Amino acid sequence: MPSTFTADPSTLRQLILQPGQGFYVPAYQRDFTWGEDEIDRLFEDLEQGITRATLGGTPSTFLGTVIMVSDRESVMPKHPDALPTTVLQVVDGQQRLSTLLTVFVVLSRFVSADMRWLQQQIDGGTAEDLDEWLLNTLGERRDELLGAIAFKTYSGIDEFNMKPRLIRQASDVWGNDAIHARYESDVAWLLMEATRYRNQNNQHVAIKVPTDRRHLESVLRVITSHIDNLRKDGADVDCDVLTELRFLRDIGMAKALIGSSPAPVAQPELLDDRRKSAARLLVVASFLLNGVLVIDVKAPDEEYAFALFEPLNTTGQPLTALETLKPLVVRSEGGNTDYSTSPSAAAFSRVESYFPSSMKADGRGKSIADMLTAFALAETGRKLSRTLLDQRRYLRSEFQSVAPPNGHITTARDFVGQLADVSAFICDVWPRSGPSPLMSLGSDLDRLCLEVLRSTNHTVVLALLARYYSVWADSQSLHSRDEFMSVLRAVTAFWVLWRTSRATTRGIDDVHRKLMATGHSETGLPAMARRASGVSGSVPPAAEIRAALRNVLSVRGNIPSMAAWVTEVTKQPLYQTSKQLAKFVLLCAHDDRVEDHVAPGLVKRGVSGSFRALTPEVWDSHYSVEHIAPQNPVQGDTSYDLKIYEQGLIDRLGNLTLMPTDLNELIGNKTWAYKKSVYAVLSETDPSARVSHMQQQLPGLALKTKTVLQSASYLPFCDFLGKQDTPLSDAYIAQRGQRLAELAVERLWPMLA
Fold first, then answer.
1. CA-based angle 206:209:214, to the nearest 5?
2. Fewer Cβ within 10 Å of end Cβ, the chain: N or C?
3. Alpha-carbon torsion angle 472, 476, 479, 485, nearest 10
4. Whole-model pTM above 0.85?
């Protein structure tokens, strides 16, 4: 091995903040492509790393290996007097480096904004004891963040004496003036733009991204959202260190996270929002610089770097968490001989059957990660990171805690059995690959509820549902089936009532995680995770789940009654909130609907069986959520009351209906008189009546349009729409929304009753 090869564990501070050091991405590397999924995982890793401090460990997270070659000669084109002292050619790790530097830009802006506010309090004489420490320590972190973004040189005119830390070959050139410097790649442009803002003392101002840099704008938006969540009260952040500000009370924790500590704050929860923000940002910035670890591999030349790169990244696949667990399971049963006929072997074989080695590696890894995330929440109430390292560690440590010699073989077998049950639920019940044995026993409404959860990707409920599934799988009794279906309907109703009554999903994941980890003290519901409650295997009656969810909806969700939900949902732009949930609300509203002759154009509830809307078959029909008054009417068309647009009614429930997409394209933004006549035609069930209506109300139709209307299926959700006056008014839209909401909640509320 060449003597110049090194591989050292490094913090980001050690890796990046070296004087006169720049990173150079060769032209053969792909563009900066990391997006929302990768950034989400990065911030999940950051939260997990910070959380480790609460467990007595060193706050840290590992981001893998970066492979680089020190090589100034390969920079092309180059201006020697403008080059960094050390140029590190990035062979592996540029996506991570690019993303982290972008995070530094956004974070430095948030830090600068809070520093300005703190300085104003100090200058104005309204400072608190904490403020000086916050301001000074934040200043240190900000200087480090800015130093990571760009480094200072002793050559260069004005702003060009600062050089971006990372550039790309072919797109960028380190230069000393506007003529020779070029920073066209997204990341280099951003780093240089941040430097310009810094020179203008505008570090607190968000950088305006040109419209032609769409990927960069998207990345900045996602990162900004994550940092904004980390610093705010009430955000869906699973990191007690930040949410509870425990480090402000605990000097040792503050020193571990930040390197210094203020005088202890007895009640940090009473601080104002801006000071809380500054304290949280201080932890995040400190952790990024000192707690994020990589293996810094420096090779003597590019050829040797690629020799390292190949085995680390392309030869085989890393062992999955399940594969690293299996040896422990075999050992718990006494070795290979005894294992082959053991209950653990049968259960583990079930697990392996769902994730066979024949699956494509990427898909297999994702599927296992999805399952283990649900399993950890169902088993111990823990929010498990999707990183392979954390999933391996969790499975192994949890199994070792219940298996001999620390535990008993029975509890070890139960652990593997639960792993098999969760795998079966995730792979047999949750997907749409075909009817599962359990769901084939459910009602139309039960199967529809599952489809609503699936289509909205509401996966946080998987853990709770898997608990009741496991009980059914063990007994397959009618009672356990009914209990599962009752919980299924309850979580669906709760999800729909919660999400459609507010602008964001914030808080709902936390509701379910707390139910799993600690239960619900107000109603006496125990922790729902199998081993969190101390009563392994048993689950409380479904009625207790419904009671807890009703209480949460009322107290935390501010929806204590059906009327309260109606008030909120009719104010929401439901089309923008979620088209899938809007579709379900419309189905609930139209179930057993009949015409309301007293109020033309509206529907009311008819007798049972009048019209079945809550079935999987109706859901699967080619209906999409469409607007009655079009989103973009033809200019000069006065058949739609302008107040509909002025009052923001266009995306609300009262202006939505269900239609086949092809038919909506036929009539999408035509005049109301035309559209109303088409609704009337499509609501006719008698073919001759359709023809007659077209002749009377729609003369001059093109042959193709006539053919489409004559052959189209009956349009039940547009029935009766055309029976109110022209033009289409704001009052009708509001009245229709109120009526539909009242009808929908009649179907939703009993699922939680």
1. 130
2. N
3. 50
4. no
